[in-house]
Amino acid sequence: MTFGGAPLLDGAGLAVAAGERLCLVGRNGSGKSTLLRIAAGLAPFDTGSRFVQPGATIRYLPQEPDLSGFATTGAYVEAGLAPGDDPNRARYLLAQLGLSGMETPARLSGGEARRAALARTLAPAPDILLLDEPTNHLDLPAIAWLEGELARLRSALVLISHDRRLLGTLGRAVLWLDRGITRRMDQGFAGFEAWRDETIEQEEATRHKLGRKIAMEEDWLRYGVTARRRRNQKRLADLHALRRRHRETRAGTDRLRLVAAEAERSGQLVARAEGVAKALGGRQIVRGLDLRLLRGDRLGIVGPNGAGKTTLLRLLTGALAPDAGSIRLGASLAMVSLEQDRASLDPAMRLADALTGGGGDTVLVGTEKRHVVGYMKDFLFRPEQVGTPLGALSGGERGRLMLARAFATPSNLLVLDEPTNDLDLETLDLLQEKLADYTGTVLLVSHDRDFLDRVATSILAFEGEGRWVEYAGGYSDMLAQRGPAAARTPTGATAGAPRPRPAQAGETGASQGGSSPPVGAPARRMTFKDRHALQTLPAHIATLQARIAELSAVLTDADLYRRDPARFTSASATLAATGAELASAEDRWLTLEMLREELEG
């Protein structure tokens, strides 16, 4: 398949056996959606063949479902049923996804339209499911439900997704689409990145050999014997072929470069919320929120769609005043926001103008002036895209553009509202790394569980009826701390699951989202030993960290093993033991600190 003179797919292949679970991965713009549409029989192709086993049924979920022409969501879903399919399953799926079937398609949000499309795709229980970014616009409860539903189905599955957790749970093989060709790995997604990196390293070695051969050929052409003109022409043609291969192998190995322009450090306190309450449209969004945000924190905010996550962001950044309580912002804050709906992108504006502000050909990145084409290349845009209107960009390209604009502005507070939408896995990897290196503070709303685990230092979770609770660690840590209550509360519940009843008078409230203690259970308390450990553990942790730094410095000596094998072995063993002791001490301190907060709160 060729677009605009450049091959998008060049001999790509896709084979799906009965019951197979295949992850289709690749960069944004590599042709994943096109290949899936070809497999579904919905897109033409220039050369090649498509074969489907006679009688096999296929259902395809597009990235942007079209519900136009249907009076209700129920009519849209039932129109996807074939003769003999069970209409009760369609109604069951709609209910599980939080829809009644009577909604008007024109009034649906992006998440609701995606739920209706999922119900239409899953209802027939086809032989093969082709799903293009099924978790886009879905909240965490819906993603958890979808993951379980797909795991139970007997259908074969081809899945495009940026959600690592979903790919790791469902995938049994990986098809990597890169520079128009496909490579297959018959393992789960967990082994993909190591396999991909090894493949790229092998290509780099091949490219290096090609480069050396080109240099030798150029030297021969300059200084070699010229009497054999035909032979020279043959070698010249071979040189051109070598150069072409060199360009082709290099083309797909460009790396995205993210550098966040950072402002001067903010004060130690970034934001302090005390007794904050906010209601909108007669519904309580926030109730009695107490929160302290310090410099360097990475706070992830999670909850179902409609819980008020964006409203909470606006409260914490001072863009919205609370109805009750107070919010105090710290000193010297330089905030940059990445909005979810990308409303600031004018579809008619050129890509270059969106980066330069509409004037000149330079982008101010912090205090450094960069040529717009060079800055575009950092975010994997091609030079010929300078004049491309924003409306012609893919979802992933618009996401990279938003990152390019946000990271050009100096900041010490990044506010990211669903930054992972439409981004490919490689871009997500680098974004995670840059956020880890960012010295400022990050406020993050995301439904990507793996991204939250890698980035967040704490999670602010919606617990229902305007109540938000902060948990230390990432998303998985939050689930562990909430325990069995996670299956019942709005953050982790499936659609239609019962909500936890409020504590009655005289009952002991749950601590930080945990279950109430059973009747007759002894009250939790801190012993003298616990209080002493809480006071002394920070100093002990600092000592262990210093010891680990010393041992690591010793082991960085490349000649140590050759000079003194015994010392190398001893240092390695001591480093491992000290690391285990540090992990135990940190876990002990965290447990005690949570207990202290519970008792004092």
User: Which percent range fits the helix content?
Assistant: 40-55%
- Low-pLDDT ranges: 225-231, 249-253, 487-523
Task: Count the domains.
Answer: 4
Distance between the termini: 62 Å
**CA-atom Rg in angstroms:** 28 Å
In the sheet with the most strands, the strands line up as 4-5-6-3-7-8
Structural class: alpha/beta
The CATH topology of the largest domain: Rossmann fold
Number of strands: 19
How large is the share of residues in beta strands?
15-25%
CATH level-two architecture of the largest domain: 3-Layer(aba) Sandwich
The chain-level mean pLDDT equals: 80
Shape: globular
Largest sheet: 6 strands, mixed
CATH superfamily of the largest domain: P-loop containing nucleotide triphosphate hydrolases
Number of helices: 18
Q: What's the CATH first level of the largest domain?
A: Alpha Beta
Descriptors for this entry?
alpha/beta, 4 domains, 18 helices, Rossmann fold, 601 residues, globular, 19 strands
Describe what this molecule looks like in 3D:
With 601 residues, this protein is an alpha/beta fold. It has four domains: 192 residues, P-loop containing nucleotide triphosphate hydrolases (Rossmann fold), CATH 3.40.50.300; 53 residues; 219 residues, 3-Layer(aba) Sandwich (Rossmann fold); 73 residues, Valyl-tRNA synthetase, C-terminal domain (Helix Hairpins). The chain has 18 helices and 19 strands. A six-stranded mixed beta sheet has the order 4-5-6-3-7-8, sandwiched between helices. Strands 13-16-17-11-18-19 form a six-stranded mixed beta sheet, with helices on both faces. A three-stranded antiparallel beta sheet has the order 10-9-12, covered by helices on one side. About 8% of the residues have low confidence.
